[in-house]
Amino acid sequence: MADRIEVKFKTGVKDALGESVCATIERDLQIKLQRVQTVDVFTLDKDLSKEQVELCRVELFTDPLTQYSRVNSPIAEDFDWIIEIGFLPGVTDNVGRTSKEGIKDLLKIEFAEGEAVYFSRQYLLSGKLARKGVERIAGYLHNPLIERSFIKSHAEFKHARGIHAPVPRVKLPVSDRVDEVNLEVSDDELIRLGKEGILDHVEPDGAEIRRGPLALDLEALYIIRDHFRAKGRNPTDVEVESIAQTWSEHCKHTIFAAQLDEINSVYRSHIKDATGKIRARLGKDDWCLSVFTDNSGVIRFTEGWDLCYKVETHNSPSALDPYGGAITGIVGVNRDPMGTGQGARLVINIYGFCFGDPYYKGELPYRGRDRARPILHPRAIFEGVRRGVEHGGNKSGIPTPWGFLIFDERYMGKPLVYVGTVGLLPAEINGRPSYSKKAQAGDYIVMAGGRVGKDGIHGATFSSESLHEGSPAAAVQIGDPITQKKMHDAQIEARDRGLYNSLTDNGAGGLSCSVGEMARECGGCEVDLEKVPIKYSGLLPSETWISESQERMTYSVPPENLAEFLALMQTRDVEATVIGRFNDSGLCKVYLHGKTIMDVDLEFLHEGLPQRKLKSKWKTPRLPLPRLPKTGDMTQILYHMAGRLNICSKEYVVRQFDHEVQGGSVIKPLIGVNDDVHSDAVVIRPLLESLAGVAMSCGVLPWYGDIDPYAMASCGIDTALRNVVAVGADPDRIALLDNFCWCSSDEPERLGQLRRATLACYETALAYRTPFISGKDSMYNDFKGFDGKNNPVKISVPPTLLISSLGKVNDIRKCVSLDAKSPGDLVYVLGETRDECGGSEYFAYLGEKECGSRMWGMKVPRVDTGSALMRYRKIHRAIEDGVLASCHAVGMGGLGMGFARIAMAGDMGLDLDLSKVPKAGKLRRDKILFSESQSRFVVTVSPDDQKRFEDIMSGDVFALVGRVIEDRYLVVKDARDKLVLRADVRELSSRYKKTLGW
């Protein structure tokens, strides 16, 4: 019988979570409550003595100063309604898992198979509520995809003597079932197989229950059928599922690899080829070491150290379970550098979130007909994703200094969740370059870390299609950063001892992909599937093979090192199991109790999918101009601009992330006198014994893509570069990563947008000599559902390209930030301002004010790479020579918001002459202020350094436009000394912070 320990705050002790929940319910649901209290519940599903349970209650679960607790007796009191929320059976329960480890350590005992600890939480609601209102609150507080809830009134609770929630054990019959999949069927049936998956069983009413999408089209299924027809047999379900994972868009990037019009793959021709040409030009000075071949790209950092970097997306799972999707995203991308070369130490995390309007008040679309299963509100997705990435990063001990948030109604159906990780590698490990690895025939296949469950099944194929009514719940996982942190530390020790030859992470496709990929290094593998550790019985063999359950790595361990490797993992409390051996047979073979359940040629598994042939279309859109206002006093417009969702402070989110852990933070994410204005970039010192730093930033401008995807990509690259240059990065040592998140990518018009964007990546990267070292694409970010009247609804994200930059700072002592430093400093604008408001936040503001939606215009910013690169090198020299007091890379909101940020960060004023700003032709005041022309900077310079600065910038376009003043007003005048705007810096700061000041 299980024991329940319930823990509550003592009377008079602040229940911060309860107060927060009470406030958010009132704000988001407009339900007024007097009070919300919380109770933590730990269910111990193990046969323990009363004395053992009591010891756990006192020593593990209760803080005697602030809490009291009871065993097997309800603790809740003084409430009107109670809601208890816990995980569904089989869902990863991180608090329960950690509690289990604590009990093991405290009592010096082991847990048998099936024994566990489960966590749940009670919410005690006080206030006059009908049951319907409580059900709304319960629906708000939990996600039925992964959680269960129980509701009782006070009277019901008293009568039942508490909440008697069943223990969420997984109860499934043991199954070694391996099915033969008949592909000799009609095309209609093959299409259904690709979309809905293998038939699992038929219900008594005749309904067919299928296992979930294979995301295989008819052509791919023909090829699989012909391959096995030649073998004289049908494939097993294990084989079909494995091929589907390996061939998925998520893993094979079939659109990027396709022949598009006359281009033989935009990936090879536009992304990879750009890097190849840049490396050839660098010659012996090539600082790229391993690009596009491993889990992350590797570059030289210092003489003895290398860096690797990868950015991923976790969009589809985050739409269904924001917390689980996001935490799995961040711990999942952590494993990319862990699985790069011989394994990196994790030193930096980044994030990027694209959400719908968190203040959206309309009716949400539904996943099913008849108002069934509404999508999550953008605010709920926002909070869940933020919390997931925060928990994943903070609990892993990895700093998370950089990130961004952008908002657009088109992200409401499917958010974009970017997560990235930088790893640090010694240049050599045991006499080999750290980026090299190769599994050897005869090595043991060892899986280490977490166990395998039903979570994450069909994750790769699920992410390779649009979200729809049949999207599988099993595709959602929840990562456990504590388990992964232990594995990370143990792996570094094993690496330095030289105990393995190769490794990779168990990401998309689970073992089917990790073992299959590593087998290519040596030529074959054999796996005994029954040896794979599972969380609970009842998994089908195909599920064990493809599950993406988290915190797992696969290693190739030489026989002579096996005992030492396993012993090391055991002492570090990391489960490691031999599941097979690598060989050179040319085959991937999987056995179950000696019976062959998969026997596939590696060549067919990895190269059998033919190149797709696609056609694109491109037609420049015609977009209207908003009605331009009179350009008198622009003060109120600047105030409104400061508070716009895409410009305002994201301090609420930034403060949740620990950027100081590991002690290397130099330029912080929030800077200035009050540490409350966003920096252009961050600088991290990954080696505390070195003065070398890493500068990180990004460019993401989806609205430019509405006018021209070429501009979106080129401006994204320029933004990512100038941001890191502004803090001190060497413009000749900047690496780029590309992350394409597209929609409806089988439509020619969307492919036309893709072609233009990748062409811009090629041409702009070559011009700047900035190589791409890694990338990722997610091509079907669409939601398909219904409105309240059962009309079909499709919401597609705007094609979105994230460009991430990783720059080297030679000496962190010379870094600069954007805040104004001293009254009397001179203010310069560098670069030309043009009539380029198309896609800008200013035109969006005018459009929303005019008709309630964004209106874009046509004159989107363009990049002059030649003049920009010269400017970047001059700025770098000025920073190296110490002549800049501050430097700001002008971005969204143009010069107007650039001036505002400098003033807000320095808590000082600026006195400026707008007529002095370098510009192309005659421009209206508002366009000078809010055009988003690229490659521009605002810098401040001490009068003592004026000549040195102007000598350095000689030959470039720049102008002295004003001075820093002590009076805290941003004052802008024109050539006739007529006031353009006079903004109170304190009011600007208030508007800047208020919008998301939750």
List keywords for this structure.
single chain; 998 residues; alpha+beta; Mth169, Chain: A; Phosphoribosyl-aminoimidazole Synthetase, Chain A, domain 2; seven-stranded mixed beta sheet; 45 strands; 25% strand; globular
Summarize the structure in short.
With 998 residues, this protein is α+β, with helices and mostly antiparallel strands. It is built from 30 helices and 45 strands.
Description:
The protein is α+β, with helices and mostly antiparallel strands and 998 residues long. Among the domains are: 3-160, Phosphoribosylformylglycinamidine synthase subunit PurS (Mth169, Chain: A); 187-247, no CATH class; 816-998, Alpha-Beta Complex (Phosphoribosyl-aminoimidazole Synthetase, Chain A, domain 2), CATH 3.90.650.10. It is 33% helix and 25% strand. It contains 30 helices and 45 strands. The chain has a 7-stranded mixed β-sheet with strand order 22-24-21-25-23-26-27. The chain has a 7-stranded mixed β-sheet with strand order 40-42-39-43-41-44-45, with helices on both faces. The chain has a 6-stranded antiparallel β-sheet with strand order 3-1-2-5-4-6. Helix 24 links the parallel strand 34 (734-741) and strand 35 (772-778). Helix 10 runs parallel beside helix 24 (748-768) and helix 12 runs parallel beside helix 13. The longest helix is centred in the last third of the chain and has 21 residues, at 748-768.
Helix content: 25-40%
Number of helices: 30
Structural class call reads alpha+beta
The mean pLDDT is 92
The radius of gyration is 29 Å
Uncertain parts: 459-475
CATH topology of the domain at 816-998: Phosphoribosyl-aminoimidazole Synthetase, Chain A, domain 2
Overall geometry: globular
Number of strands: 45
Q: Biggest β-sheet, characterized? A: 7 strands, mixed
Strands of the biggest beta sheet: in what spatial order?
22-24-21-25-23-26-27
Any idea of the CATH class of the domain at 816-998? Answer: Alpha Beta
Approximate strand percentage: 15-25%
